[in-house]
Design goal:
One of its GO terms (molecular function) is hydroxypyruvate reductase [NAD(P)H] activity. This is D-glycerate dehydrogenase. Belongs to the D-isomer specific 2-hydroxyacid dehydrogenase family. The protein is of the alpha/beta class. It has helices at about 10-20, 35-45, 60, 85-90, 100-115, 120-130, 155-170, 185-190, 195-200, 220-225, 245-255, 275, 290-310; strands spanning about 5, 25, 50, 70-75, 95, 150-155, 175, 190-195, 205-210, 235, 260, 280-285. The chain has two domains: about 5-100 and about 290-310, NAD(P)-binding Rossmann-like Domain (Rossmann fold, 3-Layer(aba) Sandwich); about 100-285, 3-Layer(aba) Sandwich (Rossmann fold). The protein contains 13 helices and twelve strands. The chain has a seven-stranded parallel beta sheet, sandwiched between helices. Helix 1 runs parallel beside helix 13 and helix 5 (about 100-115) crosses helix 7. The longest helix has 19 residues, at about 290-310.
Amino acid sequence: MPTVYVTRKIPDVGLQLLKKKHFRVDLNHSDQNLSEEDLKKLVSKYDAIITLVTDKIDRQILAQASPNLKIISNFGVGYDNIDILEAKRKGVIVTNTPGAASESVAEHVFMLFLSCLKQVIAADRFVRLGKYKKWDPFGFISPQMWGKTIGIIGLGKIGTFVGNIAYNGFKMDILYYDTSRSEDFEILTEAKYSDMELIFKKADFITLHVPLTPQTFHLVGKKQLDFMKNSAILVNTSRGAVIDEEALVEALKTQKIAAAGLDVYEHEPDISQDLIALENAVLTPHSASATIETRNSMSRIAAENIIDVFEGKEPFGLIKAK
């Protein structure tokens, strides 16, 4: 009977799939992350592991992997927590859950944009503190999102969903950048393929949807922030280190840009106190994908990836080392 360890509690749908296929499933019932020593023991003992994006599976941990470890199935779309090249060298397949979070994250992007634009946090506090005494035609006034220009950096599944919402829901003009063009996306949304400099100069709203790699580390720094309009809003739901957080804090402090909505942070879960103190930053706790539907889908795909490997099939979420 193949053995699977799940490093944190996840929705039951995936666990039941594994049990029906006669896997023995062991689970960390604690809400605490496993230690490095715990992870080393797991890779030396189990045939498959379902990891969370908070589990750092590096070279030192993979050095302890037994020949029986066939797959590390990451419960998430991102996989920068795993040393993919070292896993390949050890003969361990790595998978993720592509597409599972697209709709949920796209919803979250617009929630952050609109929360920043409409000053929702400040307006809510204003009412709760008893300051709302009479209607003011200029109170919390802002531009509207409708018909403005959105810049999308990274046109994967999430970026595509964001573009569809922007075009069909808000009649926005779309500028996008990716390593390759998408003619289908351009036809459906009238989007224009642009270089990043133009996007940062022209867009009223900018959203980031790129993986964290050596090439995308600090993709957005002082130079890009200086390009932006002082009325522009930046949203990041990808990975925190894609933005130079110190440069972002300075741009927000000096109102070089209007606002930022962040779901991820450069040194997560530690968040800069300077960032927390800013009124023009809306912050959420890496919860963009936190919907019931998405979590169930992630659990199912993570389990199916394992089942596929043990049945000799190529898993849906296979990560290919580059």
